[in-house]
Amino acid sequence: MKNELLTPAETAERIRAGAILSIAGPDALLATLPRGTWIGGTTVYMLTEDGGARIDDRLFVSTFESATGATIRHHSPDTLPALAQDRPEGVTLLLIPAFSDAHRRFALDGTTYDGLFDQPLAGWITGVPVEKIGTTAPAIFDGTTGTRHTEGAMALHVALPAGTTPSLDIVNIFTPSDDPATTFTFPETGFSARTATVNGKTVDLAAYLRAHAIDTRLPLVANYAGALINVSFEHVDAAGGGVSFYAPVIAGTEYRLATAQPDYAAAFAATLGDGGEGMLSCNCILNYLHGDMAGKKTGRFTGPVTFGEIAYILLNQTLVKLDLAA
Q1: In this structure, how many other beta carbons lie within 10 angstroms of the beta carbon of residue 131?
Q2: CB of 192 within 8 A of CB of 242?
Q3: What pLDDT digit, counting tens, does each position of 137-193 carry?
Q4: Where are the domains of the chain?
Q5: Among 54-58, 129-133, 244-248, 289-293, whose mean pLDDT is lowest?
């Protein structure tokens, strides 16, 4: 896997040469690219060799150098359950626009898709500059047709040579607090909640968060079959009383507020060590913003900063890494 920050002209050369590519960058730049074997998603935030940065004039290009072939499909929200059907042996990269119906459906129902866990499924949720949230729709691109979509999901199914053993993993720097006052269970599965149970009592969640001065820049953390998975707060509605999340909370699951990280970038660097070169990776926009990661490095991992991460399921405030080493 080769990861590079390229100009649109350099990217177009790679496409015309027949490379199999994943491309992240500004909407306007993605729209200029020629047809070829690539998929693209919108974001202007990147983790580069020099650290985190907002980049409006270049594209982050990942080349699947070892691929023996690729199939590209756009799925509507209704056809998403067929995501894992008729795909070549290898890996799948999936891009979904933030705040879309496909985003919601994949988050809620993705674990029920037939064959989803049979081979690595990595990906990310596309976004927009933070000042344009709510006014501009994130997008995905089908490089084979040059089509831009703001709904559905773009899948790049990559065939790999015999002997290649892809490895998909996550890095979550957060650990759950042991404070019972920040341990929550929810009555319903969904992207929002009005109530939660804390210490056996049902509370108005928004009021409780305010009254206890809980730092909602920290995610909720739960144990999903042995893995610590984050759910991040999106908005606390002081007037209406509701709380929204960037991923769904699961009814009956115990969530604990994460322990604060004094230095996000240092925590990632310490966890990752010197690894990361030649891997496909993405990291969450909330880590970038809350951790003030502009100009800071996360080991040797580079890639797009995203509005959600995918490692089989939707994730928040997590680094996803895919290694295609033989």
Answers
A1: 8
A2: yes
A3: 999 999 999 999 999 999 999 999 988 889 999 999 999 999 999 999 999 999 999
A4: 2-170+264-323, 180-257
A5: 289-293
Q: At residue 297, does pLDDT exceed 90?
A: no
Size of the chain, expressed as the number of residues it contains: 326
- pTM, rounded to two decimals: 0.95
Question: Can you spell out the DSSP letters for 282-300?
Answer: EEEHHHHHHTT-BT---TT
Maximum distance among all Cα pairs of the chain, rounded to whole angstroms? 62
Instruction: Specify the 3-state DSSP secondary structure of 271.
Output: helix
pLDDT interval class at 115 (50, 70, 90)? very high
CA distances to 28, 35, 139, 149, 243 from 31, rounded to whole Å, are 5, 10, 10, 11, 36
* Residues forming a β-bridge with 51: 48
Which residue in this structure is represented by tokens 């070169």?
277
CA 190 to chain centre: 18
Question: Do 303 and 3 contact (CB within 8 A), yes or no?
Answer: yes
Tokens of 274: 């010197």
Rounded Cα distance between 238 and 245, Å, is 15
Task: Please give the Cα distance from 46 to 92 (Å, whole number).
Answer: 21
249 CB contacts (<8 Å, ≥6 apart)? Answer: 186, 189, 190, 193, 220, 231, 255
| Per-residue pLDDT tens digits for 9-36 | 999 999 999 999 999 999 999 999 999 9
